[in-house]
Amino acid sequence: MLKEQQKKDAQKQKEQARENFRQIREQEAEERNLRNQLVQNVEKEERPVRPPKKELSRKEEKSEKVQEVPDLLPMSWTASYIPLKQVKNGIIQTSDNRFVKIVEVLPINFLLRSSSEQRSIILSFMSYLKIAPPNIQLKVLSRKADIQEYIDKIDEEAEKETDERCKILQEDYAELIKSLGMKEAITRRFFLIFEYPSRSGSKNPDERDVHLYMRSAVQTAKKYLAMCGNIVLEHENETRFCVEILFQLLNRQTCLTESLDDRIKEVRKYYTEENGPESIRYIPVTELVAPRTIDFRNWNYVVVDGLYYTYLYVQKYRSRVPAGWLSLLINAGEGIDVDVFFFKQDKNRCVERIGRRIRLNRSKIKDTYDSNSDFDSLSESIQAGYYLKRGLSGSEEFYYMSILVTITGHSEQEVEWRSKEMTKLLSSQDIGTGSCIFREEQAFLSSLPFLQIDKNIYEKSKRNVLTSGVAACYPFASYEMSDKDGIMIGVNKANSSLVIIDIFNSLKYKNANIAIFGTSGSGKTFLMQLMALRMRQKNIQVFIIAPDKGHEFARACNNIGGEFIQISPSSSNCINIMEIRPADMETRDLLDGYTSERSELASKIQSLHIFFSLLIPDMSHEEKQLLDGAMVTCYQEKGITHDNLSLTDPEHPGKYKKMPILGDLHEVLMRKEECRRMANILNRLVSGSASSFNQQTNVDLENKYVVLDISELSGDLLLGMFVALDFVWTKTKEDRTVEKAVFVDEAWKLLMSNDLAGEYLIEIFKTIRAYGGSAICATQDLADCFAVRDGKLGRGILSNSKTKIVLNMEVSEAERIQEELDLSEAETNSIIHFERGNGLISTNNNNLIVEFKASALEKDLITTDRKDLQELKDRIRKYGTDAYGRK
Prior knowledge:
Elements: H1 2-44, H2 58-64, E1 84-88, E2 91-94, E3 99-106, H3 115-131, E4 135-144, H4 148-160, H5 164-183, E5 186-195, H6 207-228, E6 231-232, H7 238-250, H8 260-275, H9 286-289, E7 294-295, E8 302-304, E9 307-316, H10 327-330, E10 336-344, H11 347-365, H12 373-393, E11 398-409, H13 412-428, E12 432-435, H14 440-446, H15 455-461, E13 463-466, H16 467-472, E14 487-492, E15 498-501, E16 514-517, H17 524-537, E17 541-546, H18 554-559, E18 563-566, H19 585-592, H20 600-615, H21 621-636, H22 662-670, H23 676-686, E19 705-709, H24 719-732, E20 740-744, H25 747-753, H26 755-767, E21 773-779, H27 782-785, H28 792-799, E22 803-806, H29 811-821, H30 825-832, E23 838-843, E24 846-852, H31 856-862, H32 866-879
Parallel strand pairs: 16-21, 16-22, 17-19, 17-20, 18-19, 20-21
Antiparallel strand pairs: 1-2, 2-3, 3-5, 3-6, 4-5, 4-10, 7-8, 8-9, 9-11, 9-12, 10-11, 11-13, 14-15, 14-24, 22-23, 23-24
Organism: Blautia obeum
Pfam families: DUF87 (PF01935), P-loop_TraG (PF19044)
Protein name: DUF87 domain-containing protein
């Protein structure tokens, strides 16, 4: 009974709400009719008598009949407030019958470009303005970065991970991103908004004309902004894009937990239940984008969707500004949005008005004394008039510009504080602002992407400006490197956005190679290990070759479940140089089709010839032939021939037979007198001080994180480097569809060790892209790198690395890297003064300064700083293995 009564009460409430809404609609209709009658009575006497309207046929009557929208109970009362009529074909029709197009533009890092590049960009932007639509709105939105997508990806990868140690690091990585997302991470979006200029003055232009004009305007913007380096984004569904932007703009709190699809489902369900299934076709688009609440009751702020808004407008400008000066506002921080309006004026009329004003002021100045303050004012006005006239006599156009700054926060106190801080910031740059008190509602409507600014705010904020001045306001200058499926390496110091790079994205990066430069102690090894750990967490195969201080990689390797392989005479680790490892032919056959089978034995013997040429540099041609025969015999004695089927162990299907070792080859060589010299030289690796090379492979070569420590190899034992490089290169080429990364620390040492090692390294950088891989090297001695073979090897690495990271460098080294990377003076100066943990990333013609971010756990695993290691040692003594990541 109680439930039935509740249902009845609910039904009554709905009926009452519906009745109230109908009464309001009827009252509004009566008021409209009354106003229309009054207007008709006033105009009746002036209006000429027209002949009676021609009687229409049924067909004509039907075509002219306007379909009436039935009375529907809206889900949100705020929907009727949004000045939006419809969105069709990606074009917004406002309630006052204007047609508006929103285009999203990707920014570039304008401020870190050289002076010549900046000038070129501004000139290209000026070229666009000359043929752009007459009225333009530039809108910049800033908000906390949505990191949920990255967190979900990490969680998904953690579920698939089988190593518990790696899972711990994945959880720690996710917590770090959450922490940065709460404190620092800000993202910005840039929009170009223009409207259809009705040439005939009609408020009901032909739909086809509007569509063609907008399409042409978008293509023009795309073409000219590409000359600036900007990309105009295109979407599969432009209408959906527009609705999504409006939904996110008007529902900044709700959109964090509710998607547009969720809102659409909710609205459809409501209309079906309250107004019947047939009402779905009449749902206004405003229902999908309108916030649930709007509060205009306060004089100094508004509340929309639970978020507080207040507004400032710029009323005083500096007489001279640098190109890209709007970056001061754009990069001001979280909760600061910027809208810039440009309205092109009739050029001839402006020239005429300016001429009249100059003549008037010249007549006034004759009656003033040069010591009078009015004299200075009139003199400046006359000079400004002549400046405008000179510009307009050329190719420049006359605009009125207005800037509106939106400030958001979660409380009245927060927006008030931000407003004061913003005012101080702009005042320090001689830019005056005004507050929109008692006009907050009008400011809110002006900030919508409908290119409609309130007249009162416009009159207070407008400033005349020529095309060159408009171009100086180039806004697309806050570059973000936040790839969707990459690794987070830090925070962009210019705009506090997260720096997330996916170097394997071939659509964005021509190759996945990275070259890291920095002086000793600048953090090269730290950064390399940070990247390696995070790649391993994404299940990317990681190989690290450490020619120097290999022990620095052991701690991180052991704590992520990796394999640390020390190649040296004193180590028990061994990679059998004579081992033929199973190759994955399935992928090759699937992609390329079956090709003639090549002998695995022949490939291995070819590799062994390089090994022995390092061991015995003065080997004669006769000895090479004898060695070749001895190697074939050695493998034959193990049952291995040029037939690849002979490699398979019949007792263990799917596995290869036990391979020969150097000792087996030594025995074969000892059988012939003419091979004794080679056997004696090989003896050191078989039974001498380096006999650790004479054993079967005893390390896990299938591990996802392999560190090869070759730092103890020297002199004639540099052939151990070949063992490491040969293994890595062979594994890299196995499967082209698998992502893998090869890290080489202190590459200068490898380049200078011997020619073969240098050639191998260059070969990796040149061709690893074809095998789905990335080569990442770090070096501190640029002079040595560019000295080898007249710089051929050093430049080979540099030219084959799409991404370069420059850490702190000495003056001489910084000047050299400036020349190689074509850096500006400002960038070079920054490099010289970088603190540890900061660096410059250069990729895709964009440079940005990054503060690298590691969690406490990651820092403990990869730090090489003496003080940090001392502190870690004390913690390990106190807490044991639980010491990592503790404070």
